[in-house]
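#lab-general

N.A. 3:47 PM
ok so I finally got the sequence cleaned up, no stray characters, all 235 residues accounted for. can someone with queue access submit it? mine expired

B.Y. 3:52 PM
send it over

N.A. 3:53 PM
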Amino acid sequence: MRIGILQTDAVLPRFQPDHGDYPSMFMALFDAASEDMALAYQVIDTQASAYPVPNHCDCYVITGSRHSVYDDLPWIAELATFVESAIDAGKPVIGICFGHQLMAHFFGGRAAKASGWAVGVHASELLVNEPWLSPPADEFNLLSSHQDQVTDLPPGARLIATNSFCPLAGFTWGDQVLTFQGHPEFRKAYSRDLMNMRRDLLGEDVWRAGMASLEAETHERLVGRWILNFCASKA
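B.Y. 4:20 PM
back already:
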Protein backbone atom coordinates (compact mmCIF):
# COMPACT_ATOMS: atom_id res chain seq x y z
CA MET A 1 0.00 0.00 0.00
CA ARG A 2 1.41 3.37 -1.05
CA ILE A 3 0.58 6.13 1.43
CA GLY A 4 0.70 9.75 0.32
CA ILE A 5 1.63 12.01 3.26
CA LEU A 6 0.19 15.47 2.65
CA GLN A 7 2.64 17.53 4.70
CA THR A 8 1.07 20.81 5.83
CA ASP A 9 3.84 22.03 8.16
CA ALA A 10 7.30 21.14 9.44
CA VAL A 11 8.70 20.43 12.88
CA LEU A 12 10.72 23.41 14.09
CA PRO A 13 14.39 23.00 13.10
CA ARG A 14 15.56 22.98 16.72
CA PHE A 15 13.41 19.91 17.43
CA GLN A 16 14.14 17.92 14.28
CA PRO A 17 17.44 16.35 15.45
CA ASP A 18 15.61 14.68 18.36
CA HIS A 19 12.16 14.09 16.87
CA GLY A 20 12.41 14.16 13.08
CA ASP A 21 9.84 15.82 10.84
CA TYR A 22 6.14 15.06 10.53
CA PRO A 23 6.45 12.64 7.59
CA SER A 24 9.04 10.54 9.44
CA MET A 25 6.75 10.48 12.49
CA PHE A 26 3.92 9.05 10.38
CA MET A 27 6.22 6.56 8.69
CA ALA A 28 7.42 5.30 12.07
CA LEU A 29 3.82 5.06 13.30
CA PHE A 30 2.62 3.05 10.31
CA ASP A 31 5.71 0.85 10.12
CA ALA A 32 5.22 -0.09 13.79
CA ALA A 33 1.52 -0.81 13.24
CA SER A 34 1.79 -2.51 9.85
CA GLU A 35 2.31 -6.12 10.97
CA ASP A 36 1.99 -8.01 7.67
CA MET A 37 1.31 -5.00 5.41
CA ALA A 38 3.92 -3.88 2.89
CA LEU A 39 4.03 -0.09 2.90
CA ALA A 40 5.60 2.59 0.72
CA TYR A 41 5.39 6.35 1.12
CA GLN A 42 5.33 9.54 -0.90
CA VAL A 43 5.73 12.88 0.88
CA ILE A 44 3.80 15.72 -0.75
CA ASP A 45 4.66 19.31 0.21
CA THR A 46 1.26 20.99 0.19
CA GLN A 47 2.71 24.47 0.66
CA ALA A 48 4.62 24.00 -2.60
CA SER A 49 1.43 22.77 -4.33
CA ALA A 50 3.41 19.88 -5.80
CA TYR A 51 0.61 17.34 -6.12
CA PRO A 52 0.70 14.01 -7.96
CA VAL A 53 -2.24 12.67 -9.89
CA PRO A 54 -4.70 11.31 -7.29
CA ASN A 55 -4.28 7.71 -8.43
CA HIS A 56 -0.54 7.78 -7.68
CA CYS A 57 -1.13 6.69 -4.06
CA ASP A 58 -3.53 4.19 -2.53
CA CYS A 59 -4.53 6.56 0.29
CA TYR A 60 -3.65 9.99 1.65
CA VAL A 61 -2.91 11.30 5.15
CA ILE A 62 -3.22 15.03 5.96
CA THR A 63 -0.82 16.06 8.74
CA GLY A 64 -1.20 18.58 11.52
CA SER A 65 -0.15 22.21 11.11
CA ARG A 66 0.40 25.38 13.14
CA HIS A 67 -1.95 27.10 10.69
CA SER A 68 -5.73 27.27 10.99
CA VAL A 69 -7.89 25.82 8.23
CA TYR A 70 -9.76 29.13 8.01
CA ASP A 71 -6.56 31.14 7.40
CA ASP A 72 -6.68 32.94 4.04
CA LEU A 73 -3.74 31.06 2.53
CA PRO A 74 -3.92 29.85 -1.09
CA TRP A 75 -2.20 26.52 -0.36
CA ILE A 76 -4.94 25.52 2.10
CA ALA A 77 -7.69 25.93 -0.50
CA GLU A 78 -5.51 24.11 -3.05
CA LEU A 79 -5.08 21.24 -0.59
CA ALA A 80 -8.86 20.98 -0.16
CA THR A 81 -9.23 20.88 -3.96
CA PHE A 82 -6.68 18.06 -4.22
CA VAL A 83 -8.37 16.12 -1.41
CA GLU A 84 -11.69 16.41 -3.21
CA SER A 85 -10.08 15.04 -6.38
CA ALA A 86 -8.60 12.13 -4.40
CA ILE A 87 -12.01 11.31 -2.94
CA ASP A 88 -13.55 11.51 -6.42
CA ALA A 89 -10.85 9.03 -7.55
CA GLY A 90 -11.98 6.61 -4.83
CA LYS A 91 -8.96 7.07 -2.55
CA PRO A 92 -9.24 6.92 1.26
CA VAL A 93 -8.28 10.17 3.01
CA ILE A 94 -7.15 10.37 6.64
CA GLY A 95 -7.20 13.71 8.45
CA ILE A 96 -5.14 14.26 11.61
CA CYS A 97 -5.55 17.44 13.72
CA PHE A 98 -5.38 20.18 11.03
CA GLY A 99 -6.40 17.48 8.54
CA HIS A 100 -9.40 16.54 10.72
CA GLN A 101 -10.44 20.19 10.82
CA LEU A 102 -9.89 20.67 7.08
CA MET A 103 -12.17 17.76 6.24
CA ALA A 104 -14.92 19.44 8.23
CA HIS A 105 -14.33 23.07 7.28
CA PHE A 106 -14.12 22.61 3.50
CA PHE A 107 -16.85 20.01 3.13
CA GLY A 108 -19.81 21.61 4.85
CA GLY A 109 -18.84 21.63 8.53
CA ARG A 110 -16.94 24.16 10.60
CA ALA A 111 -13.74 24.54 12.62
CA ALA A 112 -13.12 27.34 15.11
CA LYS A 113 -11.08 28.35 18.15
CA ALA A 114 -11.79 26.31 21.28
CA SER A 115 -11.99 27.70 24.81
CA GLY A 116 -8.26 27.12 25.26
CA TRP A 117 -5.42 24.77 24.41
CA ALA A 118 -5.61 20.97 24.47
CA VAL A 119 -2.19 19.57 25.30
CA GLY A 120 -0.84 16.32 26.67
CA VAL A 121 -2.77 13.06 26.77
CA HIS A 122 -6.53 13.10 26.17
CA ALA A 123 -8.81 10.07 26.52
CA SER A 124 -11.52 9.66 23.88
CA GLU A 125 -14.55 7.40 23.92
CA LEU A 126 -15.02 5.31 20.80
CA LEU A 127 -18.65 5.50 19.67
CA VAL A 128 -18.78 2.94 16.85
CA ASN A 129 -17.94 -0.67 16.15
CA GLU A 130 -16.58 -1.33 12.67
CA PRO A 131 -14.55 -4.22 11.22
CA TRP A 132 -11.55 -1.94 10.62
CA LEU A 133 -11.50 -1.04 14.34
CA SER A 134 -9.41 -4.09 15.10
CA PRO A 135 -8.16 -4.75 17.71
CA PRO A 136 -11.35 -3.35 19.28
CA ALA A 137 -11.43 -0.85 22.15
CA ASP A 138 -13.97 1.22 24.07
CA GLU A 139 -11.65 4.21 24.42
CA PHE A 140 -8.18 5.33 23.42
CA ASN A 141 -5.61 7.88 24.57
CA LEU A 142 -3.73 10.15 22.18
CA LEU A 143 -1.43 13.11 22.57
CA SER A 144 -3.03 16.41 21.63
CA SER A 145 -1.77 19.86 20.70
CA HIS A 146 -4.46 22.15 19.35
CA GLN A 147 -6.38 25.34 19.93
CA ASP A 148 -8.80 24.96 17.01
CA GLN A 149 -11.33 22.16 16.82
CA VAL A 150 -14.28 20.97 14.75
CA THR A 151 -17.52 22.54 15.95
CA ASP A 152 -19.85 21.23 13.21
CA LEU A 153 -19.54 18.02 11.22
CA PRO A 154 -19.98 17.95 7.44
CA PRO A 155 -23.45 16.82 6.30
CA GLY A 156 -23.57 13.02 6.33
CA ALA A 157 -20.52 12.62 8.56
CA ARG A 158 -20.61 10.09 11.40
CA LEU A 159 -19.10 10.96 14.78
CA ILE A 160 -16.83 8.12 15.94
CA ALA A 161 -14.90 9.60 18.89
CA THR A 162 -15.53 12.16 21.61
CA ASN A 163 -13.88 13.56 24.72
CA SER A 164 -14.66 16.19 27.33
CA PHE A 165 -12.48 18.91 25.79
CA CYS A 166 -13.19 18.08 22.14
CA PRO A 167 -16.69 16.61 21.65
CA LEU A 168 -16.11 16.05 17.92
CA ALA A 169 -12.81 14.21 18.24
CA GLY A 170 -13.08 11.94 15.19
CA PHE A 171 -15.45 11.19 12.34
CA THR A 172 -15.95 9.23 9.18
CA TRP A 173 -17.54 10.71 6.09
CA GLY A 174 -18.91 8.31 3.53
CA ASP A 175 -16.76 5.22 3.22
CA GLN A 176 -13.47 6.98 2.35
CA VAL A 177 -12.75 9.64 4.99
CA LEU A 178 -11.48 8.99 8.53
CA THR A 179 -10.30 11.71 10.90
CA PHE A 180 -8.90 12.14 14.41
CA GLN A 181 -8.22 15.36 16.31
CA GLY A 182 -5.46 13.71 18.37
CA HIS A 183 -1.96 12.92 17.14
CA PRO A 184 -1.17 9.19 16.81
CA GLU A 185 2.16 10.14 15.22
CA PHE A 186 3.39 12.14 18.25
CA ARG A 187 5.56 10.73 21.01
CA LYS A 188 5.64 12.00 24.57
CA ALA A 189 9.12 13.52 24.31
CA TYR A 190 7.98 15.73 21.43
CA SER A 191 4.78 16.68 23.26
CA ARG A 192 6.87 17.63 26.30
CA ASP A 193 9.16 19.84 24.23
CA LEU A 194 6.18 21.58 22.60
CA MET A 195 4.55 22.27 25.96
CA ASN A 196 7.78 23.61 27.43
CA MET A 197 8.23 25.91 24.43
CA ARG A 198 4.66 27.22 24.83
CA ARG A 199 4.60 27.35 28.63
CA ASP A 200 3.91 31.09 28.80
CA LEU A 201 1.31 30.87 26.03
CA LEU A 202 -0.49 27.93 27.64
CA GLY A 203 -0.51 29.37 31.14
CA GLU A 204 0.79 27.60 34.21
CA ASP A 205 -2.35 25.57 34.98
CA VAL A 206 -2.69 24.15 31.46
CA TRP A 207 1.06 23.48 31.26
CA ARG A 208 1.10 21.63 34.60
CA ALA A 209 -1.95 19.52 33.72
CA GLY A 210 -0.52 18.69 30.31
CA MET A 211 2.83 17.65 31.73
CA ALA A 212 1.17 15.52 34.42
CA SER A 213 -0.98 13.79 31.78
CA LEU A 214 2.15 12.35 30.16
CA GLU A 215 2.14 9.71 32.88
CA ALA A 216 -0.90 8.12 31.20
CA GLU A 217 -0.62 5.30 28.67
CA THR A 218 -1.13 6.23 25.03
CA HIS A 219 -2.48 4.10 22.19
CA GLU A 220 -0.83 5.48 19.08
CA ARG A 221 0.04 2.07 17.66
CA LEU A 222 -3.56 0.90 18.05
CA VAL A 223 -4.89 3.96 16.23
CA GLY A 224 -2.21 3.55 13.59
CA ARG A 225 -3.46 0.02 12.97
CA TRP A 226 -7.04 1.27 12.69
CA ILE A 227 -5.95 3.79 10.07
CA LEU A 228 -4.13 1.13 8.05
CA ASN A 229 -7.11 -1.23 8.32
CA PHE A 230 -9.44 1.53 7.13
CA CYS A 231 -7.21 2.37 4.17
CA ALA A 232 -6.72 -1.29 3.22
CA SER A 233 -10.46 -1.96 3.34
CA LYS A 234 -11.25 0.98 1.05
CA ALA A 235 -8.22 1.07 -1.26
